[in-house]
Amino acid sequence: MLLYMRKRGSITFSPIIDGKPISDSEFALLSEAQRDTFYTIIDELENRLSENLLSLPTWKRENTERLRELDKTTAEQGIKPLLKLLEHKYAAELGVMKYLKQLKTALVNAILVIHSEEQKEEKSDDFDKKIFLEEQFLPNVLVSNKIDDAAPVIYEPNPTYQNLFGKIEYTNIHGSVFTNYRMIQAGALHRANGGYLLLDVDQLIEQPYVWDTLKLAIKSTRLRMDLPQQDVGMVNNITLNPQPIDLNVKIVLLGSRDLYYTLQDYDDEFDELFRVLVDFDLEIPVTRHALFDFVGKVRAHVKSLGLEGITTNAMCRLVEYSLRMAEHKEKLSAHFAEVIELVNEAYYYCKKANATVLELDYLKTALSAKKRRTGRVSQALLNDIKEGHVLIATEDKAVGKVNGLTVLDIGDTAFGTPARITATVFAGASGVVDIEREVELGQPIHSKGVMLLNGYLGNKYAQHFPLTLSANIALEQSYGHIDGDSASLGELVALISALTEIPCLQTLAITGSINQYGEVQAVGGVNEKIEGFFDLCQYRGLTGTQGVIIPKSNAINLVLDATVIDAVKKGLFHIYTVETVDDALSILMEQEAGKISSKGRYPKNSINYHAVNRLYNIALIVSGGDGE
After folding, report:
1. pTM for the whole thing?
2. Which member of 109, 269, 281, 358 lies 3.0 to 4.6 Å from 310 by CB, making a disulfide possible if both were Cys?
3. Rounded CA gap, 382 and 371, in Å?
4. Count of domains in the chain?
């Protein structure tokens, strides 16, 4: 008998005669006794074969297990010496030793996977051993620091959730979202761990989830990489949950003073987490050391631009520019970047002239160009006054009319422009009415300044009779919102002029804030205000009678343009300083205001004398008494 296996995997038996297997037709020619004999033998063999085939799966399983165990032992023997070297090298590092122990098992399993792929008859085109090993074992270095590196200082300009706490990226495989540990990316907190992280607080609080998560990380000193997308319904097929990292970082929030106090008011944990406040001043006192630093920084920047140096006159002009930004004779502006920007603009004109030293003329050209670029609005307002569209008188006298000084802030530019203040007084009991407030153009501070006029009039003139009058005060031809109390001195002078019918000089303009006792207080933007009125007077022609009245306390803030200073030195323009309302009245009305005597009376024919008489007569008229 001959046993053989066909291609389709089945096992059959065939009779053999004379050493050769016979075909079915030859088998049919045999005698019936011979065929029965063959049938009996075949049945017995098939029964034996069936019994033996029952144990074949067990043999195969045992063979596969023994082969796998052999492969595993071979792999272990292959990687053992390599790991042994690492174990000796990092014997003192428990974390590394633990990792190497886990790595051994993972390496063996990876080798078995690769071996099984190589044993397959039909190898997958997608399988790449190098890529497979990289995805399994190549480290994903989130942050790399050297032992001798200094503490990291990280500034994150865009503090989104992912940029701060890191993120897990995903890829699409056959329509499914997939990720692995190598797609984990570090955030700013990872890079700043062990050092300092600088954040813009205004950007920080605008980002969803960031503020609360940052506070939690600071309190727990643990950095987790949670997924905020899951909180809003985004579910990934495969995701990761990285192990939390110990966090040791100092966080520096950069922002405005107002924002700091707002967070302090609205977040109870803010004081606990951010205890140290560093409040930078906007001005720097002019000391020898400060000037030395100022000059040194400017010279270093000039050198970095490739110039040989800067002249003394140009340096003095830069110091003057900084003093003007600070609006103080004895303080430099802390915004040094503005000075550097001016140097950069002057450098352009310097290179254009092929010069190697930065001179004063180049700074003047840069300042002139900047004024021309940013002065369109101020020039338009001045043109309206020149053309008579806005009524501002710079000669003669007028009753109840005063030239006030205002300053407008547009973007990073401030400029001054005069504005006419008018007042009317008549019998009545409605008090001093601020027209700007009535039409909702006057902002709170401006309205407060006008309301103080009632207190001044009552305290100054109406000690022995009730203060009864009706008066209207307006800032003429103003069509926008008005704020600030720097016009209150001018408004009071216009009111007293209307009350006493004594005219005020129109050649002078006035600015200042007052209190209820008639003391004149400092105001802001005094340089721009003076220069705004000077430009108008210069256009109409300087007569030597024109000028401005400012609070005496503002004298230290004067850092005027050279043109104005030159006109003052020549007597073509005047700057008067006053401490009280009476000082301003005396200058504008050209007569004595009058001091009260021990009997409670003012000198006859003085300004205050006329004011008391007029208020007393109005009170009599309103109350029905004799007005004579």
Report:
1. 0.70
2. 358
3. 14
4. 5
